[in-house]
Write a structure and sequence with these properties.
Elements: E1 6-9, E2 15-19, H1 24-36, E3 40-44, H2 50-61, E4 65-70, E5 73-77, E6 88-89, H3 94-105, E7 110-114, H4 125-133, E8 137-141, E9 145-151, E10 158-161, H5 167-177, E11 184-188, H6 195-202, E12 207-212, E13 215-220, E14 230-232, H7 237-249, E15 254-261, H8 268-275, E16 279-288, E17 291-299, E18 307-308, H9 320-329, E19 331-336, H10 349-359, E20 363-367, E21 370-376, E22 385-386, H11 392-403, E23 409-411, H12 424-429, E24 434-435
Parallel strand pairs: 2-15, 3-14, 6-7, 10-11, 18-19, 22-23
Antiparallel strand pairs: 1-23, 1-24, 3-5, 4-5, 7-9, 8-9, 11-13, 12-13, 15-17, 16-17, 19-21, 20-21
The structure holds shikimate-3-phosphate.
Protein backbone atom coordinates (compact mmCIF):
# COMPACT_ATOMS: atom_id res chain seq x y z
CA UNK A 1 0.00 0.00 0.00
CA UNK A 2 1.44 3.36 -1.04
CA UNK A 3 1.79 5.68 1.94
CA UNK A 4 -1.43 5.82 3.86
CA UNK A 5 -3.60 5.43 0.77
CA UNK A 6 -4.58 2.08 -0.78
CA UNK A 7 -6.24 1.11 -4.05
CA UNK A 8 -8.19 -2.04 -4.93
CA UNK A 9 -8.50 -2.98 -8.58
CA UNK A 10 -10.84 -5.42 -10.34
CA UNK A 11 -9.38 -8.83 -9.53
CA UNK A 12 -9.70 -12.36 -10.87
CA UNK A 13 -11.61 -15.04 -8.96
CA UNK A 14 -10.36 -15.32 -5.36
CA UNK A 15 -9.18 -18.81 -4.54
CA UNK A 16 -7.33 -20.58 -1.78
CA UNK A 17 -7.30 -21.26 1.95
CA UNK A 18 -6.34 -18.57 4.43
CA UNK A 19 -6.44 -17.73 8.10
CA UNK A 20 -7.35 -14.34 9.46
CA UNK A 21 -5.87 -12.69 12.56
CA UNK A 22 -7.13 -13.72 15.99
CA UNK A 23 -10.30 -12.36 17.51
CA UNK A 24 -9.87 -8.83 18.82
CA UNK A 25 -12.54 -9.06 21.53
CA UNK A 26 -11.02 -12.24 22.97
CA UNK A 27 -7.47 -10.89 22.69
CA UNK A 28 -8.23 -7.81 24.82
CA UNK A 29 -9.99 -9.97 27.37
CA UNK A 30 -7.19 -12.55 27.51
CA UNK A 31 -4.64 -9.86 28.39
CA UNK A 32 -6.87 -8.12 30.92
CA UNK A 33 -8.03 -11.30 32.68
CA UNK A 34 -4.47 -12.66 32.64
CA UNK A 35 -3.34 -9.43 34.29
CA UNK A 36 -5.98 -9.83 37.00
CA UNK A 37 -5.31 -13.54 37.65
CA UNK A 38 -2.97 -15.26 40.07
CA UNK A 39 -0.17 -17.01 38.21
CA UNK A 40 0.99 -16.97 34.63
CA UNK A 41 -1.49 -17.18 31.75
CA UNK A 42 -0.30 -18.54 28.40
CA UNK A 43 -2.00 -17.18 25.31
CA UNK A 44 -1.41 -18.50 21.83
CA UNK A 45 -2.58 -16.79 18.69
CA UNK A 46 -3.02 -13.37 20.32
CA UNK A 47 -3.97 -10.66 17.82
CA UNK A 48 -0.96 -8.37 17.53
CA UNK A 49 -2.85 -5.44 16.08
CA UNK A 50 -2.26 -2.00 17.54
CA UNK A 51 -5.45 -1.99 19.63
CA UNK A 52 -4.41 -5.11 21.50
CA UNK A 53 -0.78 -3.99 21.82
CA UNK A 54 -2.09 -0.84 23.51
CA UNK A 55 -3.99 -3.01 25.99
CA UNK A 56 -0.79 -5.02 26.63
CA UNK A 57 1.05 -1.78 27.40
CA UNK A 58 -1.81 -0.71 29.67
CA UNK A 59 -1.79 -3.87 31.81
CA UNK A 60 1.99 -3.50 32.18
CA UNK A 61 1.47 0.06 33.37
CA UNK A 62 -0.94 -1.27 36.01
CA UNK A 63 1.80 -3.61 37.26
CA UNK A 64 1.22 -6.91 35.43
CA UNK A 65 3.84 -8.61 33.29
CA UNK A 66 2.94 -9.19 29.63
CA UNK A 67 5.68 -10.74 27.53
CA UNK A 68 5.73 -11.76 23.89
CA UNK A 69 7.61 -15.06 23.67
CA UNK A 70 7.11 -15.64 19.92
CA UNK A 71 4.68 -14.31 17.30
CA UNK A 72 1.21 -14.59 18.87
CA UNK A 73 2.59 -16.38 21.95
CA UNK A 74 2.24 -14.35 25.12
CA UNK A 75 2.66 -14.90 28.85
CA UNK A 76 0.85 -12.66 31.27
CA UNK A 77 1.44 -12.65 35.02
CA UNK A 78 -1.20 -10.90 37.03
CA UNK A 79 -1.44 -9.34 40.42
CA UNK A 80 -2.81 -6.39 42.36
CA UNK A 81 -3.04 -3.37 40.09
CA UNK A 82 -1.43 -0.11 41.15
CA UNK A 83 -1.62 3.50 39.98
CA UNK A 84 0.16 3.77 36.63
CA UNK A 85 3.01 6.29 36.39
CA UNK A 86 1.54 8.04 33.33
CA UNK A 87 -1.80 8.25 31.51
CA UNK A 88 -3.09 5.00 29.99
CA UNK A 89 -3.30 5.62 26.23
CA UNK A 90 -5.69 3.15 24.62
CA UNK A 91 -5.07 4.48 21.12
CA UNK A 92 -8.06 3.73 18.88
CA UNK A 93 -9.68 1.07 21.04
CA UNK A 94 -13.09 1.50 22.66
CA UNK A 95 -13.00 -2.08 23.92
CA UNK A 96 -9.55 -1.57 25.45
CA UNK A 97 -10.39 1.61 27.31
CA UNK A 98 -13.87 0.60 28.50
CA UNK A 99 -12.79 -2.81 29.80
CA UNK A 100 -9.63 -1.42 31.40
CA UNK A 101 -11.59 1.31 33.20
CA UNK A 102 -13.89 -1.39 34.58
CA UNK A 103 -11.05 -3.65 35.66
CA UNK A 104 -9.10 -0.79 37.28
CA UNK A 105 -12.16 0.49 39.18
CA UNK A 106 -12.00 -2.38 41.67
CA UNK A 107 -8.49 -1.48 42.87
CA UNK A 108 -7.30 1.20 45.24
CA UNK A 109 -5.61 3.27 42.54
CA UNK A 110 -5.88 6.39 40.47
CA UNK A 111 -5.46 6.46 36.71
CA UNK A 112 -6.02 8.74 33.75
CA UNK A 113 -7.28 7.15 30.52
CA UNK A 114 -6.97 8.67 27.09
CA UNK A 115 -6.82 7.73 23.42
CA UNK A 116 -6.41 8.97 19.85
CA UNK A 117 -8.51 11.57 18.00
CA UNK A 118 -11.27 9.06 17.26
CA UNK A 119 -11.43 7.55 20.75
CA UNK A 120 -11.50 10.92 22.51
CA UNK A 121 -14.65 11.73 20.52
CA UNK A 122 -16.50 8.58 21.61
CA UNK A 123 -18.97 8.47 24.51
CA UNK A 124 -17.62 7.07 27.78
CA UNK A 125 -20.59 7.94 30.02
CA UNK A 126 -22.24 4.65 29.18
CA UNK A 127 -19.49 2.93 31.22
CA UNK A 128 -18.72 5.72 33.68
CA UNK A 129 -22.33 5.95 34.91
CA UNK A 130 -22.53 2.33 36.14
CA UNK A 131 -18.99 2.53 37.55
CA UNK A 132 -20.05 5.63 39.52
CA UNK A 133 -23.11 3.74 40.78
CA UNK A 134 -20.72 1.05 42.03
CA UNK A 135 -18.73 3.69 43.94
CA UNK A 136 -15.81 4.57 41.65
CA UNK A 137 -14.92 8.25 41.46
CA UNK A 138 -14.70 9.31 37.85
CA UNK A 139 -14.17 12.64 36.20
CA UNK A 140 -14.65 12.82 32.46
CA UNK A 141 -13.87 15.59 30.01
CA UNK A 142 -16.68 17.61 28.46
CA UNK A 143 -19.54 15.51 27.12
CA UNK A 144 -18.45 12.40 29.03
CA UNK A 145 -15.38 12.00 26.82
CA UNK A 146 -11.74 11.02 27.39
CA UNK A 147 -9.43 11.89 29.08
CA UNK A 148 -11.06 10.34 32.14
CA UNK A 149 -9.58 10.38 35.63
CA UNK A 150 -10.68 7.36 37.67
CA UNK A 151 -10.20 6.65 41.36
CA UNK A 152 -11.03 3.04 42.14
CA UNK A 153 -11.51 1.22 45.41
CA UNK A 154 -13.93 -0.97 47.29
CA UNK A 155 -17.08 -1.10 45.16
CA UNK A 156 -20.67 -1.90 45.95
CA UNK A 157 -23.15 -3.94 43.93
CA UNK A 158 -25.26 -3.02 40.94
CA UNK A 159 -28.21 -4.27 38.96
CA UNK A 160 -27.74 -2.73 35.51
CA UNK A 161 -30.12 -2.87 32.55
CA UNK A 162 -27.98 -2.96 29.40
CA UNK A 163 -30.40 -1.34 26.95
CA UNK A 164 -27.65 -0.66 24.42
CA UNK A 165 -26.85 -4.40 24.17
CA UNK A 166 -23.21 -3.40 24.60
CA UNK A 167 -20.69 -6.07 25.56
CA UNK A 168 -18.24 -3.34 26.48
CA UNK A 169 -20.59 -1.92 29.12
CA UNK A 170 -21.49 -5.38 30.44
CA UNK A 171 -17.83 -6.41 30.58
CA UNK A 172 -16.71 -3.23 32.35
CA UNK A 173 -19.31 -3.87 35.08
CA UNK A 174 -18.40 -7.54 35.48
CA UNK A 175 -14.67 -6.73 35.66
CA UNK A 176 -15.29 -3.96 38.21
CA UNK A 177 -17.29 -6.40 40.33
CA UNK A 178 -14.56 -9.03 40.53
CA UNK A 179 -13.04 -7.60 43.72
CA UNK A 180 -16.34 -6.93 45.43
CA UNK A 181 -18.59 -9.38 47.25
CA UNK A 182 -21.76 -7.46 46.50
CA UNK A 183 -24.40 -8.57 43.97
CA UNK A 184 -23.31 -7.60 40.46
CA UNK A 185 -25.92 -8.22 37.78
CA UNK A 186 -26.43 -7.08 34.21
CA UNK A 187 -29.79 -7.59 32.54
CA UNK A 188 -29.66 -7.76 28.75
CA UNK A 189 -32.99 -7.36 26.93
CA UNK A 190 -30.97 -8.34 23.83
CA UNK A 191 -27.87 -10.44 24.55
CA UNK A 192 -24.50 -9.00 23.56
CA UNK A 193 -21.35 -11.03 22.82
CA UNK A 194 -20.52 -13.24 25.80
CA UNK A 195 -16.75 -13.64 25.56
CA UNK A 196 -16.22 -12.05 28.97
CA UNK A 197 -18.56 -14.57 30.59
CA UNK A 198 -16.91 -17.49 28.77
CA UNK A 199 -13.38 -16.37 29.52
CA UNK A 200 -14.08 -15.48 33.15
CA UNK A 201 -15.23 -19.08 33.59
CA UNK A 202 -12.00 -20.32 31.98
CA UNK A 203 -10.16 -18.36 34.72
CA UNK A 204 -12.22 -20.09 37.42
CA UNK A 205 -14.73 -17.31 38.13
CA UNK A 206 -18.42 -18.16 38.66
CA UNK A 207 -20.64 -16.39 36.15
CA UNK A 208 -24.31 -17.28 36.23
CA UNK A 209 -26.61 -16.71 33.28
CA UNK A 210 -30.38 -16.89 33.61
CA UNK A 211 -32.97 -16.43 30.88
CA UNK A 212 -35.78 -14.32 32.38
CA UNK A 213 -38.98 -12.79 31.00
CA UNK A 214 -37.12 -9.45 30.76
CA UNK A 215 -34.05 -10.83 29.03
CA UNK A 216 -30.78 -12.50 29.85
CA UNK A 217 -29.51 -11.91 33.39
CA UNK A 218 -25.74 -12.20 33.80
CA UNK A 219 -24.53 -12.35 37.39
CA UNK A 220 -21.16 -12.75 39.08
CA UNK A 221 -21.23 -15.73 41.45
CA UNK A 222 -19.48 -16.04 44.82
CA UNK A 223 -16.16 -17.34 43.48
CA UNK A 224 -14.63 -14.30 41.80
CA UNK A 225 -10.88 -14.72 42.13
CA UNK A 226 -9.12 -15.57 38.88
CA UNK A 227 -6.51 -18.28 38.38
CA UNK A 228 -4.15 -18.29 35.40
CA UNK A 229 -5.40 -20.10 32.30
CA UNK A 230 -4.08 -21.44 29.00
CA UNK A 231 -5.86 -19.91 26.02
CA UNK A 232 -5.84 -20.22 22.28
CA UNK A 233 -7.54 -17.43 20.35
CA UNK A 234 -9.44 -18.40 17.17
CA UNK A 235 -9.77 -16.24 14.05
CA UNK A 236 -11.90 -13.10 14.25
CA UNK A 237 -15.26 -13.43 12.46
CA UNK A 238 -15.29 -9.64 12.07
CA UNK A 239 -12.04 -9.91 10.07
CA UNK A 240 -13.07 -13.08 8.19
CA UNK A 241 -16.05 -11.05 6.96
CA UNK A 242 -13.85 -9.13 4.49
CA UNK A 243 -12.35 -12.01 2.47
CA UNK A 244 -15.66 -13.90 2.68
CA UNK A 245 -17.67 -11.06 1.18
CA UNK A 246 -14.87 -10.39 -1.34
CA UNK A 247 -15.20 -13.99 -2.55
CA UNK A 248 -19.00 -13.79 -2.66
CA UNK A 249 -18.98 -10.78 -4.97
CA UNK A 250 -16.03 -11.86 -7.19
CA UNK A 251 -17.33 -14.28 -9.84
CA UNK A 252 -15.77 -17.76 -9.88
CA UNK A 253 -14.30 -17.49 -6.36
CA UNK A 254 -13.85 -20.45 -4.07
CA UNK A 255 -12.29 -19.66 -0.71
CA UNK A 256 -11.90 -21.25 2.71
CA UNK A 257 -11.14 -19.23 5.83
CA UNK A 258 -9.84 -21.57 8.52
CA UNK A 259 -10.41 -21.50 12.30
CA UNK A 260 -12.98 -18.73 12.51
CA UNK A 261 -14.83 -18.20 15.78
CA UNK A 262 -18.55 -18.72 15.13
CA UNK A 263 -20.09 -17.90 18.53
CA UNK A 264 -23.81 -17.36 17.71
CA UNK A 265 -23.64 -13.91 19.35
CA UNK A 266 -21.11 -12.91 16.67
CA UNK A 267 -22.61 -14.73 13.70
CA UNK A 268 -25.34 -12.32 12.53
CA UNK A 269 -23.50 -11.51 9.31
CA UNK A 270 -23.31 -15.18 8.33
CA UNK A 271 -27.06 -15.60 8.94
CA UNK A 272 -27.76 -12.52 6.85
CA UNK A 273 -25.48 -13.53 3.99
CA UNK A 274 -27.11 -16.99 3.93
CA UNK A 275 -30.52 -15.28 3.65
CA UNK A 276 -29.14 -13.24 0.76
CA UNK A 277 -28.31 -16.47 -1.06
CA UNK A 278 -24.63 -16.89 -0.14
CA UNK A 279 -23.10 -20.33 -0.58
CA UNK A 280 -21.42 -20.59 2.84
CA UNK A 281 -20.49 -23.86 4.51
CA UNK A 282 -19.28 -24.36 8.08
CA UNK A 283 -16.80 -27.23 8.16
CA UNK A 284 -15.07 -29.12 10.96
CA UNK A 285 -17.01 -27.41 13.73
CA UNK A 286 -15.09 -27.60 16.99
CA UNK A 287 -14.38 -25.67 20.16
CA UNK A 288 -11.34 -23.58 21.13
CA UNK A 289 -10.92 -21.99 24.57
CA UNK A 290 -14.66 -22.29 25.20
CA UNK A 291 -15.74 -20.78 21.87
CA UNK A 292 -17.27 -22.46 18.80
CA UNK A 293 -14.93 -22.50 15.80
CA UNK A 294 -15.29 -23.66 12.18
CA UNK A 295 -13.60 -23.46 8.81
CA UNK A 296 -15.84 -21.38 6.55
CA UNK A 297 -15.98 -22.26 2.87
CA UNK A 298 -17.53 -19.80 0.45
CA UNK A 299 -18.23 -19.72 -3.27
CA UNK A 300 -19.21 -16.61 -5.18
CA UNK A 301 -22.99 -16.38 -5.29
CA UNK A 302 -25.67 -14.14 -6.77
CA UNK A 303 -27.06 -12.20 -3.79
CA UNK A 304 -30.52 -10.74 -3.23
CA UNK A 305 -31.54 -7.85 -0.97
CA UNK A 306 -33.02 -8.70 2.43
CA UNK A 307 -34.48 -7.03 5.50
CA UNK A 308 -32.16 -7.30 8.53
CA UNK A 309 -34.10 -7.07 11.80
CA UNK A 310 -32.97 -4.73 14.59
CA UNK A 311 -32.74 -7.71 16.99
CA UNK A 312 -29.85 -9.06 14.95
CA UNK A 313 -27.75 -5.90 15.29
CA UNK A 314 -25.82 -6.87 18.46
CA UNK A 315 -24.57 -10.07 16.80
CA UNK A 316 -23.16 -8.21 13.79
CA UNK A 317 -22.65 -4.65 14.96
CA UNK A 318 -19.16 -4.36 13.43
CA UNK A 319 -20.21 -6.02 10.16
CA UNK A 320 -22.63 -3.43 8.72
CA UNK A 321 -19.97 -1.65 6.65
CA UNK A 322 -19.09 -4.86 4.81
CA UNK A 323 -22.75 -5.95 4.66
CA UNK A 324 -23.51 -2.65 2.95
CA UNK A 325 -20.94 -3.61 0.29
CA UNK A 326 -22.55 -7.03 -0.21
CA UNK A 327 -25.92 -5.23 -0.41
CA UNK A 328 -24.61 -2.95 -3.19
CA UNK A 329 -23.90 -6.04 -5.36
CA UNK A 330 -27.17 -7.79 -4.44
CA UNK A 331 -30.28 -7.65 -6.59
CA UNK A 332 -32.89 -5.44 -4.92
CA UNK A 333 -33.11 -3.49 -1.70
CA UNK A 334 -31.43 -4.32 1.61
CA UNK A 335 -32.89 -2.68 4.70
CA UNK A 336 -30.82 -2.73 7.91
CA UNK A 337 -32.79 -1.77 11.01
CA UNK A 338 -31.67 -0.59 14.44
CA UNK A 339 -28.10 0.47 13.72
CA UNK A 340 -27.89 3.91 15.38
CA UNK A 341 -24.86 2.68 17.38
CA UNK A 342 -22.86 2.84 14.15
CA UNK A 343 -22.68 6.60 14.65
CA UNK A 344 -20.41 6.21 17.70
CA UNK A 345 -17.94 3.59 16.50
CA UNK A 346 -14.35 4.35 15.36
CA UNK A 347 -16.01 6.84 13.00
CA UNK A 348 -19.62 7.78 12.27
CA UNK A 349 -19.95 4.61 10.21
CA UNK A 350 -23.44 5.37 8.94
CA UNK A 351 -22.23 8.63 7.42
CA UNK A 352 -19.02 7.03 6.11
CA UNK A 353 -20.90 4.15 4.44
CA UNK A 354 -23.42 6.49 2.82
CA UNK A 355 -20.75 8.84 1.46
CA UNK A 356 -18.61 5.97 0.15
CA UNK A 357 -21.53 4.19 -1.53
CA UNK A 358 -22.70 7.42 -3.16
CA UNK A 359 -19.18 8.08 -4.49
CA UNK A 360 -19.15 4.58 -6.04
CA UNK A 361 -22.50 4.97 -7.79
CA UNK A 362 -24.80 3.20 -5.32
CA UNK A 363 -28.06 4.64 -4.04
CA UNK A 364 -28.32 4.41 -0.29
CA UNK A 365 -29.92 6.49 2.44
CA UNK A 366 -30.78 6.50 6.13
CA UNK A 367 -34.20 6.70 7.73
CA UNK A 368 -33.73 7.20 11.48
CA UNK A 369 -31.64 4.26 12.64
CA UNK A 370 -32.25 2.29 9.43
CA UNK A 371 -29.82 2.06 6.51
CA UNK A 372 -31.24 1.26 3.08
CA UNK A 373 -29.12 0.19 0.11
CA UNK A 374 -30.47 -0.31 -3.41
CA UNK A 375 -28.38 -3.09 -4.88
CA UNK A 376 -27.51 -3.28 -8.56
CA UNK A 377 -27.51 -7.05 -8.96
CA UNK A 378 -24.06 -6.65 -10.48
CA UNK A 379 -20.84 -4.66 -10.21
CA UNK A 380 -21.00 -0.96 -9.33
CA UNK A 381 -19.06 1.62 -11.30
CA UNK A 382 -16.58 2.35 -8.51
CA UNK A 383 -13.80 4.64 -9.64
CA UNK A 384 -13.88 6.80 -6.51
CA UNK A 385 -11.56 7.86 -3.76
CA UNK A 386 -13.41 7.06 -0.55
CA UNK A 387 -12.75 8.74 2.80
CA UNK A 388 -12.11 6.07 5.42
CA UNK A 389 -12.20 8.54 8.33
CA UNK A 390 -9.26 6.65 9.88
CA UNK A 391 -11.62 3.72 10.42
CA UNK A 392 -10.19 0.26 9.73
CA UNK A 393 -13.50 -1.37 8.85
CA UNK A 394 -14.55 1.42 6.48
CA UNK A 395 -11.18 1.18 4.71
CA UNK A 396 -11.36 -2.63 4.33
CA UNK A 397 -15.00 -2.53 3.20
CA UNK A 398 -14.39 -0.16 0.30
CA UNK A 399 -11.19 -1.95 -0.72
CA UNK A 400 -13.26 -5.15 -0.93
CA UNK A 401 -15.77 -3.28 -3.08
CA UNK A 402 -12.97 -2.18 -5.42
CA UNK A 403 -12.00 -5.81 -6.11
CA UNK A 404 -15.26 -6.45 -7.95
CA UNK A 405 -16.24 -2.99 -9.23
CA UNK A 406 -15.80 -1.80 -12.81
CA UNK A 407 -13.18 0.78 -11.87
CA UNK A 408 -10.63 0.83 -9.06
CA UNK A 409 -11.56 2.21 -5.64
CA UNK A 410 -9.04 4.00 -3.41
CA UNK A 411 -9.29 4.79 0.27
CA UNK A 412 -7.49 7.84 1.61
CA UNK A 413 -6.10 6.10 4.69
CA UNK A 414 -5.36 2.45 5.19
CA UNK A 415 -2.82 2.41 8.04
CA UNK A 416 -5.54 1.94 10.64
CA UNK A 417 -6.33 -1.47 9.15
CA UNK A 418 -3.49 -2.74 11.34
CA UNK A 419 -5.57 -2.13 14.46
CA UNK A 420 -7.60 -5.27 13.70
CA UNK A 421 -6.24 -6.99 10.56
CA UNK A 422 -2.45 -6.71 10.32
CA UNK A 423 -1.32 -7.99 6.92
CA UNK A 424 -4.72 -7.40 5.27
CA UNK A 425 -3.32 -6.51 1.83
CA UNK A 426 -0.86 -9.43 1.95
CA UNK A 427 -3.51 -11.97 3.01
CA UNK A 428 -5.93 -10.72 0.37
CA UNK A 429 -3.11 -10.73 -2.20
CA UNK A 430 -2.43 -14.41 -1.43
CA UNK A 431 -5.89 -15.31 -2.80
CA UNK A 432 -5.58 -13.12 -5.88
CA UNK A 433 -6.91 -9.75 -4.70
CA UNK A 434 -5.22 -6.69 -6.19
CA UNK A 435 -4.70 -4.21 -3.40
CA UNK A 436 -1.74 -1.85 -3.54
C1 LIG B 1 -16.88 -5.24 21.51
C2 LIG B 1 -18.19 -4.86 21.57
C3 LIG B 1 -18.87 -4.05 20.55
C4 LIG B 1 -18.06 -4.00 19.26
C5 LIG B 1 -16.61 -3.79 19.50
C6 LIG B 1 -16.04 -4.92 20.34
C7 LIG B 1 -16.29 -6.04 22.61
O1 LIG B 1 -19.02 -2.73 21.03
O2 LIG B 1 -18.57 -2.98 18.41
O3 LIG B 1 -15.89 -3.73 18.28
O4 LIG B 1 -15.21 -6.63 22.43
O5 LIG B 1 -16.91 -6.09 23.69
P1 LIG B 1 -20.27 -2.31 21.98
O6 LIG B 1 -20.09 -2.97 23.28
O7 LIG B 1 -20.16 -0.81 22.09
O8 LIG B 1 -21.49 -2.74 21.25
Amino acid sequence: MAGDQATATASPALRGTIEVPADKSMSHRALILGALAKGTTSISGLLEGQDVLDTAAAVRAFGATAERCAPGEWRVTGGAWRSPPTAIDCGNSGTGVRLLMGAAAGFDLEAVFTGDRSLTRRPMDRVLAPLRTMGAEVEASEGGRLPVRLRGGRLCGIHFRNDKASAQIKSAILLAGLRSEAAVEVLEPAPSRDHSENMLRAFGCDVEVEETADGRLVRLGRQRSLTAATLQIPGDPSSAAFPLVAALISPGSNLTVRSVMVNPLRAGLFTTLAEMGADLRFLDQRSMSGEAVADIAVRSSPLRGVEVPAERAPSMIDEYPILAIAAAFARGRTVMHGIGELRVKESDRLAAILAGLAACGIEAWEEGDTLIVDGLGGPPVGGAKVLAHDDHRIAMSFLVMGLASERAISVDSANMIDTSFPGFARTMGSIGARIA
